[in-house]
Amino acid sequence: MMMINIAGLVLISLIIWWFWLYKPKAVDAAIDNEIKIVVNNGIYQPARIKIKAGQQTVLQFIRKDSSPCAAMVIFPHVDISEELPLDIDKSVLLPPMTLGEYPFHCQMQMYQGTLIVE
Ligand SMILES: [Cu+2]
Fold this sequence. Notes:
Layout: H1 2-21, E1 27-28, H2 29-32, E2 35-40, E3 43-45, E4 48-51, E5 57-63, E6 72-75, E7 80-83, E8 89-94, E9 100-105, E10 112-117
Parallel strand pairs: 1-4, 2-5, 4-10
Antiparallel strand pairs: 2-3, 5-8, 6-7, 9-10
The structure holds copper (II) ion.
Protein backbone atom coordinates (compact mmCIF):
# COMPACT_ATOMS: atom_id res chain seq x y z
CA MET A 1 0.00 0.00 0.00
CA MET A 2 2.79 2.35 1.04
CA MET A 3 4.73 1.52 -2.15
CA ILE A 4 1.75 2.38 -4.29
CA ASN A 5 1.40 5.76 -2.60
CA ILE A 6 5.07 6.54 -3.13
CA ALA A 7 4.89 5.51 -6.77
CA GLY A 8 1.86 7.75 -7.17
CA LEU A 9 3.66 10.70 -5.58
CA VAL A 10 6.69 10.21 -7.82
CA LEU A 11 4.44 10.09 -10.86
CA ILE A 12 2.62 13.24 -9.83
CA SER A 13 5.85 15.15 -9.24
CA LEU A 14 7.16 14.02 -12.60
CA ILE A 15 4.00 15.28 -14.28
CA ILE A 16 4.23 18.62 -12.47
CA TRP A 17 7.90 18.94 -13.38
CA TRP A 18 7.31 18.16 -17.03
CA PHE A 19 4.33 20.40 -17.59
CA TRP A 20 5.01 23.34 -15.32
CA LEU A 21 8.63 23.45 -14.23
CA TYR A 22 10.65 22.10 -17.12
CA LYS A 23 11.88 24.75 -19.51
CA PRO A 24 14.19 23.75 -22.32
CA LYS A 25 17.42 25.67 -22.38
CA ALA A 26 17.16 28.87 -24.34
CA VAL A 27 19.50 29.34 -27.27
CA ASP A 28 21.23 32.66 -27.54
CA ALA A 29 21.05 34.29 -30.97
CA ALA A 30 23.39 37.06 -29.89
CA ILE A 31 26.21 34.54 -29.53
CA ASP A 32 25.42 32.35 -32.51
CA ASN A 33 24.44 35.40 -34.57
CA GLU A 34 22.15 33.25 -36.67
CA ILE A 35 19.68 30.82 -35.21
CA LYS A 36 18.63 27.72 -37.01
CA ILE A 37 15.28 26.27 -35.97
CA VAL A 38 14.27 22.78 -37.01
CA VAL A 39 10.54 22.20 -37.35
CA ASN A 40 9.82 18.54 -36.78
CA ASN A 41 7.82 16.07 -34.68
CA GLY A 42 5.54 18.74 -33.26
CA ILE A 43 8.29 20.92 -31.80
CA TYR A 44 10.50 23.80 -32.77
CA GLN A 45 14.05 22.92 -31.96
CA PRO A 46 15.12 25.05 -30.18
CA ALA A 47 11.80 26.36 -28.92
CA ARG A 48 13.18 29.11 -26.66
CA ILE A 49 15.31 31.65 -28.44
CA LYS A 50 17.10 34.61 -26.95
CA ILE A 51 17.51 37.64 -29.15
CA LYS A 52 18.75 41.17 -28.54
CA ALA A 53 16.34 44.02 -28.04
CA GLY A 54 16.35 46.88 -30.53
CA GLN A 55 17.94 45.14 -33.47
CA GLN A 56 16.87 43.03 -36.38
CA THR A 57 17.27 39.30 -36.08
CA VAL A 58 17.25 36.61 -38.72
CA LEU A 59 15.83 33.24 -37.81
CA GLN A 60 16.59 30.38 -40.14
CA PHE A 61 13.78 27.86 -40.23
CA ILE A 62 14.14 24.39 -41.69
CA ARG A 63 10.91 22.44 -41.87
CA LYS A 64 11.19 18.65 -41.82
CA ASP A 65 7.57 17.92 -41.02
CA SER A 66 5.49 17.47 -44.18
CA SER A 67 2.15 17.87 -42.42
CA PRO A 68 0.28 21.09 -43.25
CA CYS A 69 0.27 21.90 -39.56
CA ALA A 70 3.94 22.85 -39.76
CA ALA A 71 3.61 24.92 -42.93
CA MET A 72 3.29 28.36 -41.39
CA VAL A 73 5.11 30.13 -38.65
CA ILE A 74 3.41 33.10 -37.03
CA PHE A 75 4.85 35.84 -34.86
CA PRO A 76 1.65 37.55 -33.73
CA HIS A 77 3.29 40.44 -31.84
CA VAL A 78 5.12 41.71 -34.89
CA ASP A 79 2.46 40.70 -37.37
CA ILE A 80 4.65 38.27 -39.27
CA SER A 81 3.46 35.04 -40.81
CA GLU A 82 5.67 33.10 -43.17
CA GLU A 83 5.22 29.96 -45.19
CA LEU A 84 7.91 27.36 -44.53
CA PRO A 85 8.86 25.25 -47.54
CA LEU A 86 9.64 21.62 -46.86
CA ASP A 87 13.34 20.83 -46.42
CA ILE A 88 14.49 24.24 -47.58
CA ASP A 89 16.04 26.88 -45.36
CA LYS A 90 13.72 29.81 -44.89
CA SER A 91 14.94 33.05 -43.37
CA VAL A 92 12.52 35.08 -41.30
CA LEU A 93 13.56 38.64 -40.58
CA LEU A 94 12.33 39.98 -37.28
CA PRO A 95 12.16 43.74 -36.77
CA PRO A 96 13.76 45.34 -33.69
CA MET A 97 11.73 44.32 -30.66
CA THR A 98 11.40 45.56 -27.11
CA LEU A 99 12.20 43.56 -23.98
CA GLY A 100 9.90 40.70 -23.17
CA GLU A 101 8.86 37.21 -24.09
CA TYR A 102 6.89 36.69 -27.26
CA PRO A 103 5.30 33.44 -28.38
CA PHE A 104 5.43 32.18 -31.94
CA HIS A 105 3.54 29.23 -33.34
CA CYS A 106 2.00 27.49 -36.33
CA GLN A 107 -1.57 28.22 -37.44
CA MET A 108 -3.15 25.79 -35.04
CA GLN A 109 -0.68 26.48 -32.27
CA MET A 110 0.49 22.89 -32.14
CA TYR A 111 4.04 24.05 -32.67
CA GLN A 112 4.96 26.60 -30.03
CA GLY A 113 8.05 28.60 -29.36
CA THR A 114 9.13 31.63 -27.37
CA LEU A 115 11.31 34.57 -28.29
CA ILE A 116 13.13 36.00 -25.30
CA VAL A 117 14.09 39.58 -26.12
CA GLU A 118 16.68 40.98 -23.73
CU1 LIG B 1 0.09 23.47 -36.60
